[in-house]
Amino acid sequence: MKTSPSVTSDVASEGVPASHESAGRIRPSWLQRLRVQLERTGMLLVLALLVIVFAVNQPAFLNIDNLFSILQAVSIVALLGIGVTVTLAAGGFDLSVGSLAASAQMAASYVLIVWHGNALEAVAACLVLGIAAGLFNGLLITRLRVPDQLATLGTLFLLAGLQLIPTGGRSLATGTILPDGTETTGVFPDAFLALGRLRLFDVVPLPVVVLLVLTVVACVVMETTRWGRVIYAIGGNETAARLAGAPTARYRVAAYVASGVIASLGGVLIAARVGRGDVSAGHSMLLDAVASALVGYAVWGAKRPNVFGTVVGAVFVGVLLNGLTMLNAPYYMQDFIKGVLLVGALAFTFSVGRGTESHA
Amino acid sequence: MTVPVLTARAVSKRFGPTLALDRADLSIHAGEVVALMGANGAGKSTLVKILSGVYSPDDGELSLRGQPFRPASPQDAKRCGVATVHQSIADAVVPTLSIADNLLLDRLCDPSSPWRATPVARLQAAAPLAERVGLEVDLSAPLASLSLASQQLVTLARALATRPALLILDEPTASLSAPEAERLFGLLDRLRAEGVAILLVSHRLGDLRRIAGRVTIVRDGRVVADLRAPIDFDAAVETMIGRPLRIQAADVGAAAVSDSASAFAAQVPYFSVRDLQLTSGSIPFDLDVQRGEIVAIAGPVGGGKSRFARAIFGATHATSGAMTLDGKSWRPRSPADAIRAGVFLAGEDRWRSSLFPDSVPFASIAGTLSFPFLSHWFKHGRVHRAREQRAATEAIERFGIRCTGPDDRLTRLSGGNQQKVVLARWHAQPARLLLLDEPFQGVDAGARADIVDTLRRHAPERATLVFVSDLEEALEIADRVVRFDRATLDHVSPSDLTSYVHS
Which residues of A touch B351 (CB under 8 A)? Predict the structure, then answer.
């Protein structure tokens, strides 16, 4: 394409103010670069430091079995955290993941023990429950325009209550008496229990494998595909996303469905590990999952919900609790320690690097 | 001469590596209206924020009525007699509270005010404030029931409640129609007569011509000129942007208006609107646009221009009527539909309608540019960075976006360059019909000339509709200008338009 003379002179004259602008700027000093580096790697460095401290004080900490038991312990919280992260990225907040996992766990037990279903049917029932809960959340939010946190808080109570009704508030195992007086006779088949208890090559627990696969899938989708971009765009500026042609309501519903499916998968893993339908399962999981997602903001200087950070956050909590337990810290300290970590990570995320932001 | 109300001497402010303000001097006397002019990023906002107590200067001295003035906060500045009305009305009001409570907001938030204020007492206290700015409405109604212009009067009334010696107005007419702006100027004239000193920041030359007694021009953080009346505004603009203006807006526009009428009359229209009724009460109208033509839809803010644009784009639906594009009926169900068909809208207020905040990972030039076309460019889902960077590099060159590369964050660019990115986005794919809603909002004269150039160069490929509230801007960009108000169109002859501009 040919450019007219007026255009070329325009470009030339533009060069003058540009040089003025650059004259006012100084190259970042090594201190600033160090700060940027710390912002990125700070959380990972602290995690590495923790591992070293624990390993020096208690060599058994670095045992392969112990490391995988940490991962197994955090796998379900990390899974729920991934779901929360996806909804956070879409500008929402799924507070129902904990009670959804608990309900899914009860549903799986009910299918196995009362309905004498097989493992596949139990898993399928859980996933259907997850999709239904996600759709319910999504439609409450996009159709009825209930604010995200309130809608999912409602679903939290709804599901937490719903799971108690079929068994009359009792935990569900072979021989439990149901409200109508019948005694249950079904059992957890080995195929189902394997989901929570099998170790790949006798080392890697299956829930850890599930977590790993889901982390990779979620990372790839959220960071490298257009679908992930649309989700982040909706979280950043929904109007701009809609005016750029994104079907925002559909994406927001999809984010809640994804979160629901992941949470119900977490429920399956709980049921398979515990081997019965436990009414008290999943009580602290919501807070732990949310904490992981928020700690994740601080990982790699992201300052936004991100799947990798969430998983690192969950592992961080697991390492800390496991190590402290090995060093004989009392169990009742755990919640306090999690609180300290969360507040510290949030302070780190939102204070560090404020000075480097543009003033415009 | 008397002691100035406010003097700033050698005031400097540095943000990290950037020197935003470099030994700036400024003085304002009682009853004087001083306009602060400067391109985006020149340091106007920094100077205003120092005067209003948001920032404290790194260096230099401020004095108010001869006394040293070092405001610790905006509240402190207000107590000392410097009141500021910021451009963004939404940040200054609480829509759910009553108008009276909004007028008294500073008083209600003041810890030393009495803890009890009955609704009746509040209405009584608010009445004189409303009266001072000529706001004649039911003060117990919620603020949200007011028009944007009246909401702005509320913020102005609030600023005047403390009887300030200096009133700072940041882009006060940005969201006002011509009569509304004139009402504001009338009010400012009265304040000036009362001896209030007024510092005005505005991009609109019309405003400055109407009201400013003196113009102070900042460029690259320095005060480069201080012009007294009579002010040569063309020279002022050239001083501001640091180079001569290329387009004499009104002349070119007027010539184009008469030319295009004959040139396009014979052809079949490329895009046409028939009996379009935008809202249930509005008058239906027709409009024809040819391929290659740039038509400006000019009219006051709140006159329904944006609604018209959004109706063509499928973001809202008209009550009745029909549209045709390139011989086919045009009925988009959503923006996605419109974008697929090559009908693009660059919305007004870029940070609300187009751009993503910095927390979004791809809020860079490349990511902003590619977003609407992701599903078209990356059918299998995976985003290829090289593809979008290539598009961005091309756009940077084509639009003369001043940046270090396609991965620059949008927040790092100046307002004019951000706007160029928004426009460049809708040139990344060929458009059949391009809709630009207030494309010059918050853009200085230099960047505006660049944008006009580029739009004109690409105009032959498509039909272009530009929705603007500033007639001067309309004449600068368009082949043909039509007036739009109350959600309908009225045709005006070219001579009427030009006389309007020069009046």
Answer: 237
